[in-house]
């Protein structure tokens, strides 16, 4: 009994770590730029393919993970330069236009991979996901452990950076009111780029972890995480980083536990995040840590 | 000023005459299209497959199989000296598209026979088009039992889900000695059919299944379910068939310490990819895979080498079964003729056809093929000690029991 509960807890933390990684990046971009960056799932796809490519090249997962985060960051810069920045220059209706544009970018990336790389599911030649350690009968997969530790370390680092550094403070200022921040000498455009770079690196890292976790790289790898992140962000409170962390834990736990214990034969796992979101919105419409009217 | 009554009557008669001629012409053309003994220049066969979208890997391979088989038939003299021409239609794994492409094949392009090289859901949608038009159609790899429950114009060359499920159940109970299983399958129509027939046969034999979950297609995170299964003390696991799902399931099961037998609900795809994906981890416990071909034979290995040289990589069951479908179709046309009724008769009289996907003993009256269930296992090949690799070996062959085929 203890083993079962402990095992399910590990399962919750492992999947929540990946959810966190992905949704934190999306939240950050929203908090700073007020853009629902659905192309985040596309950047995750780029991260997953880049990781496989660099791993095959170097046979070193740490180097390939770093490289894929850099490639993801570069993708973020390109999206910001060629898609969002021109739209943001036009002050009228940019919220809706950026949302539609982000969907366009997502489809372009996914279809691009489908067209030029193919629908083939690629696998790593090394089964990273097979390694598991035994702690008092509870099995912890290496990838689950990596997801938990990386989520903790990267989010803590981001937190400290946001609180303690000049750029971090500027970023928070822009997220409050970028026009006011611009009046204080902060260059919002530069901050937008920083947010996009950091957010994309999180997406890239989520792509690395997901592809290694399931030993599978394919064009639609970012589709479900995108939808789940959408629920997490709204559940946690739109634009709130701590809210996203709590949201990821709730959705991760709900998914895992309903998946395991719900006494029905067919489990609509893809819908669980949205059911939780609906319940959350009825109880607290602004999200767990969201502000009223947001 | 009003027109004289005679002028109005003449015009009315003229319109009626034109309408009658037009209706007669359309009916005549339609009748000709449906009953003609094929065009004089070629015999057109429509192959519907998902060549775009996530199932493109198997759809494209299905087209390749049909093309290569047609080329071989044509090189050997064709059908009474005339060539078979393959018309390829992409249904993008979409049932609606499968219906419209089937209509296009029959009514626009005048195909005299069809091959559905597509999945169960798309084939189920398209089958009524072929049945209603009374054009014979061969289902290459879709396994849903309802596909042959129609007006009798559908013939299945691939193994039916019920036969696979029951064959695997006999193997699990008699050979592996399993008594208490847990099952995870996806919401795919074919997979559910295999699972249901497995459980039906397994419980009839005396076994019990204590865990039965259906997950969404594409699911990759099975730890919560496997954790539950582990606590129930099962001695065997039924797993989804597609390697993109069976690979993570196997790795996660072994990682969680579930070293029991894992039985795959018939690999609809990628046995080699599965082996590459699971690696030696899988060898912790026994694995049983139903195979659509006996990949352990020398003949099959030689074919696979040729395929690799031509297309690169490994062939899939889409290729094998669509290749076999066209060859069986060609044999039927040679034997009986090329009108729809003659092709249908020829198909129903097929006996002992040996192809890439094994031997088809015969077809039942309903159009189901009778074939054995081939079961493969996985072992470590240390022939080259410096490069040990995983390979399959033949675990068993359960002869097809005609009573397993649904009426």
Care to describe what's here?
The complex is a heterodimer of chains A (294) and B (407). Chain A is mainly α. Chain A has eleven helices and two strands. Chain A has helices at 2-33, 40-58, 61-89, 94-116, 142-164, 166-176, 178-183, 188-214, 223-236, 241-261, 269-283, and strands spanning 132-135, 138-141. Chain A has a two-stranded antiparallel sheet. The longest helix of chain A has 32 residues, at 2-33. The N and C termini of chain A lie far apart (43 Å). The mean pLDDT of chain A is 90. With 407 residues, chain B is of the alpha/beta class. Chain B has twelve helices and 15 strands. Chain B has helices spanning 5-35, 56-75, 95-108, 120-133, 161-175, 189-205, 223-231, 243-255, 271-278, 298-311, 317-336, 340-348; strands at 42-49, 83-90, 113-116, 137-139, 154-156, 180-186, 208-215, 236-239, 261-264, 287-291, 351-355, 358-363, 369-370, 373-381, 389-398. In chain B, the strands form three sheets. In chain B, strands 7-6-8-9-10-14-15 form a seven-stranded mixed β-sheet, sandwiched between helices. In chain B, strands 2-1-3-4-5 form a five-stranded parallel β-sheet, with helices on both faces. Chain B has a three-stranded antiparallel β-sheet with strand order 11-12-13, covered by helices on one side. In chain B, a hairpin with a 2-residue loop joins β11 (351-355) and β12 (358-363). In chain B, α2 packs parallel to α11, α3 runs parallel beside α4 (120-133) and α8 runs parallel beside α9. Chain B starts with a helix and ends in a 9-residue tail after the last strand. At the A-B interface, α1 and α10 of A face β7, α7, α8 and α9 of B.
